[in-house]
Design a protein that fits this description.
The chain is built from four helices and four strands, in the order H-E-H-E-H-E-H-E. By secondary structure, the protein is an alpha+beta fold.
């Protein structure tokens, strides 16, 4: 999913090639998920948030496989400094399916919980102040 309500099947071959370029071999389809996240522009804050994602994924039994930058074409956006400064960095997080998860539906439920726990933890740390982080989607299907 792209977060715009358009649901398409995961492009497995594309993701395999992209992650292989980072030395990551993805599990078989249905045994990995992709989360699309908006990140703040500050690299230190991005690294901190990625650490939280890794920690929560580990605690929830979902192996973190890696991250990928999402290429964007922002040429049609205003060049006004306040607009450019508010554009999020788009990343994808790849998560493996925990060994104890038996069904696809259970995996999707766990991913939903993972998404909410990550968002809640970051919201707690920032005391509700918007820092540019948002989980757009997280699924093994779309």
């Amino acid at each position: 999913g792209d977060g715009a309500g358009v649901l398409v099947q995961l492009p497995d071959r594309f993701f395999r090639e992209e992650m292989a370029s980072q030395g990551v071999e993805l599990p078989k389809p249905g045994h990995y998920a992709v989360g699309h996240v908006f990140m703040p522009r500050d690299p230190e804050l991005q690294a901190h948030i990625e650490g939280i994602i890794a920690e929560v994924a580990h605690l929830e039994g979902q192996p973190l496989l890696g991250f990928r930058d999402v290429p964007v074409d922002n040429s049609s956006l205003s060049k006004a400094p306040d607009i450019a400064a508010s554009e999020p960095v788009q990343r994808q997080v790849f998560l493996g399916r925990g060994a104890e998860i038996e069904s696809d539906d259970d995996y999707e439920r766990r991913l939903y919980i993972l998404r909410k726990v990550i968002s809640g933890r970051i919201h707690e740390e920032t005391k509700g102040v918007d820092n540019g982080f948002y989980v757009v989607s997280m699924s093994s299907r779309t």
